[in-house]
Amino acid sequence: MNAPNFGIVMSHAPGFTARWDVVDDARQATLTAGVERARALVAEAEPDLIIAFVNDHFHNFTLKGMPPFCIGVGDVHEAPGAAAAEMLRIPERTIAGEPEVAMQLLECVMAAGFDPAFSAELSLFDDLSVPLYKLYGPERSLPPVIPIVTNCIAPPMPSFGRCYDLGAAIGYALETIDAPYERVMVLGSGGLSHWVGTPRTSEINGEFDAAFLAQMRAGNIEEMRMWNDVEIDEVAGNGALELKNWILALAALGPFTAQQLAYAAVPEWLTGMAIFAVTPHD
Amino acid sequence: MKGYRLSRVLADIGRPEGRAAFEDAALLRERYHLTPAEVEAMLTADLAQLYALGANPYLIRFAFRDKYEN
Description:
A: Protocatechuate 4,5-dioxygenase, Chain B; about 40% helix; globular
């Protein structure tokens, strides 16, 4: 099969679908335009497989067992399940997985020195459900999705550097797997700056977001590889650690060109909301 | 692991509507082995103190969602 040829990296938040009306018209317009552009680019790319880098929110894993990484190898995934659908105010949906490719991917990255867990029964919350809803709407059919779940919520977590390395290994592995997929899209979901459940909840660091957006537009994630969890938590919030999903997706894509489609600071949803389309280049 | 017992209570509470069943100091002490400071923080919904005591902030958020403005 082919290496990924297209990607979307974007923020997620329950409010993006459940509390849309609390945001003013200007920011709604910014985000609507970004979503519409992203949806058009996805339609144009016509992905036949999505590799989705997401993070669990204690829906699948608890402190009784918290894998650093987990590859979804199920025939199907809930995105969202019934309870999550009620919270997110979007329809409950079961989406197709790609177990054969997912298992091969698991074997490839294990051979490369990574040891992710795997799960055949994942139920994804806003990390996957909201981006898919925004990019495809409730009506368009989805290609198969392989979720790759990273621990971004319960320290200690895999470092940004480790995430970059795994993402690169996944990108390489996809090229070597024998499967009939030609148009592979990566999705990286999370961030930007935000604090969840801490005394700083609802704060957003606009300066951090602006600097990060500039690095993204330049296609430069070298500094991001060196990010330290404690420092990012302090400067941009525990929610910014979800940007590990971005670096995984971007590393899987390889050197990239990024097009910023939207950014709005939305403290009402706790989050700096950004959407980028990314394509690889030599 | 710092805050594990608190996090376990919060995980068992789940959403705010489940919280009433855990507003019981004896249960928090005897089933979850919380310290007096942890019990106090739970019963008074002192979110900053729960965080300071090491509870996972995502679990604080989920269990006390109704206490946040946003």
